[in-house]
Design goal:
Helix content: 25-40%
Distance between the termini: 17 Å
Strand order of the largest sheet: 4-3-5-6-7
Structural class: alpha/beta
Number of strands: 7
Number of helices: 5
Order of helices and strands: EEEHEHEHEHEH
Largest sheet: 5 strands, parallel
Amino acid sequence: MTYTPFGFDSSLTAKKRVFLSFVEEDKMQVQGLRLLKDNPDFALEFYDESVRVPIDSSNSDYVKRVIREKIARCSVTVCLIGATTYQSKWVNWELRTSEEEKNRIIVMALKGIESAVLPQFVRDRNLTFHPWDPAQLATLI
């Protein structure tokens, strides 16, 4: 429910908090998605809680704590799949953590990815792998 100065407006909805899980090699493509969601002419709306700047620490416990806090503030995790995503221990950890936090998990290919090896977590849970489609992503979120 959204309230305005004039009362309740059922046509407005709060943006979902979304954590984007991806590998560093795909950062530029993920930035494209972030720009798309900020385009007022496109119906993809969410509040991006994901890591934008690398966490300046080699202490993995600290890095996990910072990322876990971000994931915990979200209700949805979107795993963006590129050619090397399956190799990332961090993506698998983020997805496990998202599951622990009861987040909905959406797995979608990045633009230009027609097929890919999926992360172990995705395979173990038999999650649906969606082709790149920002309109469908907006619906799924």
